[in-house]
Amino acid sequence: MASTALRRLLWLPALSLALAACSGDAPTLISQTERSQAGSHAVAFSPDNQYLVVADTEENARLWRLADNEVIYSWQSMPDAPAMTNLVGFSGDGRFVATAEHDTVMIWSVASGEPFNRVQFPYPVRAMALSPTGNAILVALTNRTAVYFDINRNRVVHIFQHDGANVNSPVDQLINAVAISPDGHYAMTGGDDWTARLWQLDTGEQMQVWPHNNSINFLAFHPDEPAVITAAANGHTYVRDYPAGDIRYFLRTSRWPKNFNYPDFPVFLITTTAAGFSSDGEYMITGHTNEQLCLWQFHSGEKISCWKTGRRAALMPGSVVQAVAFSEDGQTIFSESGNGLSEQWQRR
User: Fold this and answer.
1) Range from 68-82, 179-193, 270-284 carrying the lowest mean pLDDT
2) How sure is the predictor about 300, in pLDDT bands with cuts at 50, 70 and 90?
3) Which of 100, 101, 99, 97 has the alpha carbon at shortest distance from 110?
4) Spatial separation of the C-alpha atoms in residues 346 and 348, rounded to whole Å
């Protein structure tokens, strides 16, 4: 009994340290804009951070021009129906936007606002990513597959699956997240089997399987470097090299000292939901499920600061951060949250 009590006492200062709300010199809030009164299902910045597409929970999907914060297009495949868009994304060249409504993906031209193509799948879409030029799309479906689909040729190119071996299951597992590399040569999928997987898109060959400590909920390729982010729900977020798969580091969002082993305890782990990179390659911003933003030195993985996004009212719960980005000069950070609030932060 005495040893148990002693262990608990030793944990108390560590827990207090880890639970500190913010760390470092946090950026200053310079503006706050309401994108939606009811909130959003998903948000995505264009690759040049000039536009933003929002899947509103009660309105059509809307494309915002960030220079003047104006809505320039409102999109839905069935304009007279209730709001249906639950996923959004840009092509790598920024020319097209994809919006998903249940089992249907619409491709829209950013220049004209007109529909470019429509793809209907046999099952609802859980996650999606457009290719660099918008000529192909990778979707995760509710039938436990991910489909790489050639839009121009209207045909399935590859079907990817996550077997349940890593979680001792005899059945394939759901795929929750997908991403396509900036050069269009690779894809990542992440699933309920607690793995992220790297695939070669030319051949469909599986290149890597990366185990985690929970279901994978977020994946991202760095726009300029051969690096990827793989993140587990309430688990570790890793930065790796690809295609080799070597781990550079994992993100330490808590203030647990680096000279101690990182405890496998929920309070020290946080779900990553968004990531953005500065144009000079020096910094990374991440968004999380607990209304938190964190700024990092990208190459070292050193945390600069973490801070909270805004709430609609002091007593209202916080919201998931759905998208983040940097200004061209890297001095301003943009964040978009599921409560419909858009914020700009000035780095100090």
Assistant:
1) 68-82
2) very high
3) 97
4) 6
**Confidence category of residue 299, pLDDT binned at 50, 70, 90:** very high
Could you tell me which of 325, 245, 337, 250 has the C-alpha nearest to residue 288?
337
Distance CA 221, CA 347 (A): 24
Characterize the bridge pairing of strands 87-90 and 70-75.
unpaired
Q: What is the residue-wise DSSP string for 273-317?
A: EEEEE-TTSSEEEEEETTSEEEEEETTT--EEEEEE---SSTTS-
Q: How does DSSP assign 65-96, residue by residue?
A: ETTTTEEEEEE-SSTTSPP---EEEE-TTSSE
Task: List the Cα angle 224/337/91 in 5-degree steps.
Answer: 35
Q: Taking Cα atoms as reference points, which of 49, 30, 37 lies closest to residue 324?
A: 49
Q: What is the pLDDT of residue 10?
A: 36
pLDDT of 21 above 70: no
Angle, alpha carbons 23-285-92 (nearest 5°): 175
> Can you tell me whether residue 41 is helix, strand or coil?
strand
Tokens of 235: 């688990």
Between the two ends of the chain, the Cα-to-Cα distance in Å is 49
Q: Residue 324 has which token pair?
A: 């983040």
To which residue do tokens 């993100």 refer?
Answer: 251
Q: How many helices (H) and strands (E) does the chain have?
A: 1, 29
The token duo for 348 is: 């100090």
Secondary structure element (H or E) that encloses residue 87, with its range:
strand 87-90
Distance in angstroms (rounded) separating the CA atoms of residues 144 and 123: 10
Given a cut of 90, is residue 269 above it in pLDDT?
A: no
Average pLDDT over residues 64-75: 95
DSSP 190-217: EETTSEEEEEETTT--EEEEEE-SS-EE
CATH numbers and ranges of domains, the chain: 41-301 (2.130.10.10)
DSSP state of 168: T
